[in-house]
Amino acid sequence: MKAADRIGPIIGKLKRRYPDATCALNHDNALQLLVATILSAQCTDARVNLVTKDLFQRYRNAEDYANAQPERLQEEIKPTGFFRNKTKSILGMAKALVERHGGQVPRTMEELVKLPGVGRKTANVVLGTAFGLNEGVVVDTHVSRIARRLKLTRQTDPVKIEQDLMRLIPRKDWTVFSHMLIHHGRQICDARKPKCEVCPINSLCPSSTV
Questions:
Q1: Model pTM?
Q2: How many Å is the maximal CA-CA distance in the chain?
Q3: Would you say 164 and 125 are in contact if contact means Cβ atoms under 8 Å apart?
Q4: SS3 of residue 20 by DSSP
Q5: Distance between CA 126 and CA 64 in Å, rounded?
Q6: Under DSSP, is residue 82 helix (H, G, I), strand (E, B) or coil?
Q7: 1: pLDDT strictly greater than 90
Q8: At CA 101, angle to CA 96 and CA 102, rounded to 5?
Q9: How far is CA 132 from the centre of its chain?
């Protein structure tokens, strides 16, 4: 079956397997999600959640981050790794929010990707999860790996993978599809040893060993 013929059944089976699939980063608002997503680069969501539990108590709004002492913020986010670059991104992002957007997180892709430290993937996370806007498909390592295993794309570049997925997947499912593949990657479709025998979409996967 062609990818276009398989995508509907794939989405249907994943929805039944992961009915509550959502973003694993803890947050109460768009700013918190934006900060958490920046921190999640090369870091597990679980570790980010440990760090943000205290961080979100200290920094309540964009002004708080914009006025933060770089050295202190570095120490506070150090467990997430690459803390110098992440500090620079968070400070730059927060100052841009204060100066250009009245301290509020913008709701468009065009405005979000102009913020320091914010690329298309981060913008997609915020738009889809915080605002319920399907502007694109989040392509992380799980989505990239599983999309290729399912032969939904042959690309390796995240931007090109996203373009292929956006052409295949109904727009209303762009956000939830990413969440479901991330859950699927963590629970079943492991990078080294995928559990094909218990996979709910093994009959639709050209890479299945079953």
A1: 0.94
A2: 56
A3: no
A4: coil
A5: 20
A6: coil
A7: no
A8: 105
A9: 14
Tell me: pLDDT of 11 over 90.
yes
Q: How far apart are CA 177 and CA 89, in angstroms?
A: 28
Collect all residues with Cβ–Cβ distance below 8 Å to 197 and sequence separation of at least 6: 209, 210
Can you say whether the dihedral through the CA atoms of 138, 144, 149, 151 is positive or negative?
positive
Structure tokens at 113: 């990707």
Q: How confident is the model over 179-205, as a mean pLDDT?
A: 97
In terms of C-beta density within 10 A (0-12 exposed, 13-18 middle, 19 or more buried), how is residue 182 classed? Answer: buried
Q: How far apart are CA 52 and CA 35, in angstroms?
A: 9
**Residue tagged 């509907």 (tokens):** 8
Gap between the Cα atoms of 51 and 91, Å rounded? 17
pLDDT band (50, 70, 90) for residue 47: very high
Residues carrying an active site annotation: 121, 140
Query: Chain-wide mean pLDDT for the chain?
Result: 97
